[in-house]
Design goal:
Distance between the termini: 99 Å
Oligomer: single chain
Mean pLDDT: 85
Number of helices: 26
Strand content: 5-15%
Largest sheet: 6 strands, mixed
Helix content: 55-70%
CATH class of one domain: Alpha Beta
Number of strands: 8
Structural class: alpha/beta
Strand order of the largest sheet: 2-3-1-4-5-6
Radius of gyration: 30 Å
Length: about 550
């Protein structure tokens, strides 16, 4: 046994069940499974009263190293769960899950929460004259916020469909989560064991029902984890992870402190891949302005150059804004074709056809035109809307599996040289410059003020109307909150406004926050009024005749 094995800590699980739901059976199953698989385990229980009049919890610890590898030594287990030190919690009732969260047992950094969405109403809920039920959506949000990973589904309905008790479904969910190092065969062996003697037929039917519930719970959780893993793989695929593999040039690294290098490397590589080396040089020049202001305010680097790090992140994302050139580039990459083949599980003998649907409008075409021509295009489209027509768009269906479709996308992706001459590029750089100046000026006034302005880069996201609304919100914050005379108050107001803007797409919370901090609410945008002719009914048409 090596040092790593000696320092390995037990895997901890808290089981929460109501009276009569088999929480004790589930605990005994897990202990038997651990022994069957050759691992040391211990459980303790705090039995309550029946149904909703008392908590029934069970605590399980399993040492993740097989006994055969411990050299005759035995691990020491705890008798009670420690708040914040749970690896997982499984619960058969949603409010009970929230109650344990309120007790501080799960940790959002460590704990996986598996819970049923089913409810058994409390006495207070039943006594209410109206609808006294707790809001399930709020309870689910609590679970999401206070867990590292969460799985919520109706265990009661699954158990009823399988003809078994909910503890069998909970066991399957625990197995599907991969929490313990037990093979699935060990779980199934314990669930199916028994069936001897006079009651052999009865026991075999019970075991079969338990196995059905186990399989259902296992499939639900394992499928959700597989899907999450697939999404994580896609997000970290070549398209997104390529910049990570590139090292920061030594000349650039020498200009910034080591605390910034990891984020700076990602941003620099993204700029080179998105446009060219000159664009990356502009990115570095802008960050040097922020670093200079931060060093003036915090020469000792007590804050770890956090403002420069945040700017390295959000500036790179903004400068690499999505346009039709970028979309065409991403859609036509070889790695994307390989990913699609893997997602649909296509073999070499399968014929795979991929169609991409696009609907570029006047703004997308105007983005690549010089400002003068772009203005004419957008004015023409706006005049169409004022006349009651829909905004102009060109629906396209491109078969990217064909040579023509792929060549079309690659031709569009090669127009990087045209991007920097377009109106969209000029508009984006103008707003970026305003934001950058706001960060620099704010940092020189007070470190936290500059940091909060830098974090406002989070407001720039999405595309179309969402992207434009984010830039308008950012400019409003820069113009009305950043100049507040007291820097600390300005920083606090900007943080509150940013949080409100991110939480409420409608903007009502942002306007209320602006007014509360002495700034004007955003101006109401003028919207065209469309007059629609009321269709004549058949009866009135007959009378007119």
């Amino acid at each position: 046994m090596n040092t790593t094995q000696l320092s390995t800590r037990p895997i901890t699980l808290l089981i929460c069940a109501l009276g009569g739901e088999g929480g004790g059976v589930l605990t005994e199953w897990l202990i038997d499974i651990a022994r069957h698989a050759g691992y040391a385990a211990q459980s303790t229980s705090i039995p309550g009263v029946a149904q909703r009049t008392g908590a029934t919890t069970y605590y399980v610890e399993v040492f993740p190293v097989p006994l055969a590898q411990l050299g005759g030594k035995r691990p020491v287990f705890s008798l009670n769960p420690v708040p914040g030190a749970l690896d997982a919690m499984v619960s058969s009732e949603l409010l009970e899950t929230a109650r344990q969260i309120a007790n501080g047992l799960p940790s959002p950094e460590r704990t996986m929460v598996i819970t049923s969405s089913a409810r058994t109403l409390t006495t207070q809920e039943r006594m209410h004259l109206g609808d006294g039920r707790a809001d399930d959506a709020n309870l689910a949000e609590v679970v999401r916020a206070m867990s590292r990973e969460h799985h919520v589904f109706d265990m009661g309905a699954v158990a009823q469909g399988a003809g078994t008790i909910v503890s069998a479904v909970m066991l399957g969910a625990v197995a599907g989560s991969g929490l313990f190092p037990f093979p699935r065969a060990s779980y199934e062996a314990i669930v199916c064991e028994g069936g001897s003697g006079a009651d052999a037929n009865k026991l075999s039917k019970m075991a079969a029902a338990s196995l059905r519930g186990f399989n259902k719970g296992f499939e639900i959780v394992s499928a959700a984890r597989a899907q999450a893993a697939l999404v994580a793989h896609i997000l970290s695929s070549e398209d997104n992870a390529a910049p990570v593999k590139q090292k920061l040039p030594s000349g650039v690294a020498a200009l910034f402190p080591p605390a910034v290098h990891d984020m700076l490397a990602l941003g620099h590589a993204r700029m080179v891949e998105y446009q060219d080396a000159a664009y990356a040089a502009l990115y570095i020049k802008r960050l040097q302005q922020v670093l200079g202001a931060e060093v003036e305010t915090d020469p000792a680097g007590a804050h770890g150059y956090a403002t420069t790090r945040e700017m390295a992140r959000w500036l790179a994302l903004w400068m690499a804004f999505d346009d039709i050139v970028r979309v065409a580039d991403l859609k036509s990459r070889a790695s994307r074709w390989q990913r699609v083949r893997g997602e649909v599980k296509a073999t070499e003998d399968d014929l795979l056809q991929v169609f991409d649907h696009f609907k570029p409008g006047a703004p997308e075409f105007a983005a690549l035109l010089p400002p003068g021509m772009a203005t004419k295009v957008t004015q023409w489209d706006r005049a169409r809307v004022l006349k009651g027509q829909e905004p102009w768009a060109m629906p396209l269906k491109v078969g990217t599996h064909s040579a023509f479709g792929m060549l079309s996308l690659r031709l569009l992706a090669s127009l990087k040289w045209l991007r920097v001459r377009g109106s969209r590029y000029a508009n984006e750089q103008a707003v970026i410059t305003q934001w950058l100046q706001g960060v620099v000026d704010g940092t020189r006034r007070h470190w936290r003020l500059g940091h909060e302005v830098a974090l406002c880069g989070r407001l720039i996201k999405g595309y179309g109307a969402t992207n434009e609304r984010g830039k308008e919100n950012l400019l409003h914050v820069l113009n009305h909150l950043a100049p507040l005379p007291v820097p600390e108050a300005a920083a606090q107001a900007i943080a509150a406004a940013r949080a409100a803007a991110l939480d409420d797409d409608a903007g009502k919370a942002l306007d209320a926050t602006l007014v509360a901090h002495g700034a004007p609410a955003r101006a109401v945008k003028a919207q065209p009024i469309r007059w629609m002719r009321k269709p004549r009914s058949p009866a009135s048409a007959g009378r007119g005749a």
